[in-house]
């Protein structure tokens, strides 16, 4: 039984049964394809006879692969492929994986050694002043209207919603009006089937005002229509963002784009509650939120400034007496004068 047969016959039906997203299913399917590419010129092993050596061959193949921009896969990308390979191989054991019961075809799966996980530096979060400058530059930029809405107003609303909710740029661009609940002041982020809720975003007064403005300015508003209709290729939005950041005077090394706004939002929430930050960001556990969105400088500096300074009260030692030279009598110690 090859890995693809194992996946399609045993693991894929479970993913569909548990209503996993299309993105998740495609990711597992791509992992299987990468596995087959590894052994394109060799004999692919039976899924029940995969060894540590085979897994290492898979890792070496992934290291030679390149992403959309032509760069080699990062360690985090290789980790993702290995993390998705692990439950597939676990199905061949008696215990199986978290989602799928085991087949009992072998005693244990081979050990998979993951590359070290790489976390982004804290400095890749934009400050409040930088985000404000970005928004001001976008407002004043002249360009053709976006879906009938003035370019500057569209961007002002878009960035304001991102700042006040921490929503991902991809989610914001596909958000529909039936996701917005004005009565309860929330956005229900839907799964691919648009039926089940993935997580909920709370809306403050600023975010509510932005959505009402978009509702008034949009040509047609139906429950299935997109809130922020971009109308161009999704990647061009990053090109426009870079123009705004450049116009705002933000140096090249600090043009972090949209995810930096989400990190700023998460770090602000973490000042008050880590649990609230994880919930607001839509993460399953608090540690994930802290690892990826906890800008230590942004979180800690305000509290460090509040620490009452301790000043030294130690009395300095007395000045030691110095000998005085008297002409004709040599050196005389006059310490008794003290």
What coarse outline follows from CA principal-axis ratios? globular
Distance between the termini: 98 Å
The Rg value, from CA coordinates, equals 30 Å
The number of domains: 2
| Number of DSSP E strands | 5
Largest beta sheet, briefly? Answer: 3 strands, antiparallel
CATH class of the largest domain: Mainly Alpha
Helix content: 40-55%
Mean pLDDT reading: 88
**Biggest sheet strand line-up:** 1-2-3
- What is the CATH T-level topology of the largest domain? hpI Integrase, Chain A
| Uncertain ranges | 334-338
Question: So, CATH architecture of the largest domain?
Answer: Orthogonal Bundle
The topology string of helices and strands comes to: HHHHHHHEEEHHHHHHEE
**Beta-strand share of residues:** 5-15%
CATH superfamily of the largest domain: Intergrase catalytic core
Structural class: mainly alpha
Structure, explained:
The protein has 338 residues and is mainly alpha-helical. The chain has two domains: 3-90, no CATH class; 123-299, hpI Integrase, Chain A (Orthogonal Bundle), CATH 1.10.443. 47% of the residues lie in helices and 6% in strands. The chain is built from 13 helices and five strands. The chain has helices at residues 3-17, 22-38, 52-64, 75-90, 128-140, 151-165, 169-174, 205-217, 236-247, 259-270, 274-281, 286-293, 296-306; strands at residues 180-181, 186-190, 197-202, 324-326, 330-332. It has a three-stranded antiparallel β-sheet. Helix 10 (259-270) runs antiparallel to helix 11. The longest helix is centred in the N-terminal third of the chain and has 17 residues, at 22-38. It is globular and about 90 Å long. It starts with a helix and ends in a 6-residue tail after the last strand.
């Amino acid at each position: 039984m090859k890995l693809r047969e194992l996946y399609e016959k045993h693991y894929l039906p479970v993913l569909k049964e548990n209503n996993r997203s299309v993105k998740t299913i495609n990711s597992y399917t791509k992992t299987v394809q990468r596995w087959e590419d590894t052994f394109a010129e060799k004999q692919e092993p039976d899924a029940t006879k995969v060894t540590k050596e085979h897994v290492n061959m898979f890792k070496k193949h992934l290291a030679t692969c390149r992403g959309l921009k032509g760069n080699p896969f990062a360690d985090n990308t290789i980790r993702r492929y290995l993390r998705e390979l692990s439950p597939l191989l676990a199905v061949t054991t008696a215990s199986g994986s978290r989602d799928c019961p085991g087949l009992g075809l072998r005693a244990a799966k081979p050990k998979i050694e993951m590359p070290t996980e790489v976390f982004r530096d804290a400095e890749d979060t934009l400050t409040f002043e930088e985000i404000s400058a970005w928004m001001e530059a976008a407002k004043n930029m002249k360009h053709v209207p976006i879906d009938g809405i003035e370019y500057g107003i569209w961007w002002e609303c878009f960035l304001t919603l991102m700042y006040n909710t921490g929503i991902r740029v991809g989610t914001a661009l596909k958000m529909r009006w039936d996701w917005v609940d004005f009565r309860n002041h929330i956005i229900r982020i839907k799964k691919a089937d648009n039926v089940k809720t993935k997580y909920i975003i709370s809306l403050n007064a600023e975010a509510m005002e932005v959505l009402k403005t978009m509702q008034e300015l949009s040509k047609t508003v139906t429950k299935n229509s997109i809130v922020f209709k971009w109308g161009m290729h999704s990647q061009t939005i990053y090109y426009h963002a870079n123009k705004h950041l450049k116009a705002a005077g933000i140096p090249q090394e600090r043009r972090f784009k949209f995810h930096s706004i989400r990190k700023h939002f998460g770090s602000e929430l973490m000042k008050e509650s880590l649990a609230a930050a994880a919930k607001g960001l839509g993460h399953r556990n608090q540690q994930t939120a802290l690892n990826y969105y906890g800008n230590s400088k942004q979180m800690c500096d305000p509290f460090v400034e509040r620490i009452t300074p301790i000043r030294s009260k130690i009395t300095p030692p007395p000045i030691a007496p110095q000998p005085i030279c008297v002409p004709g009598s040599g050196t005389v110690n006059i310490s008794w004068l003290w």
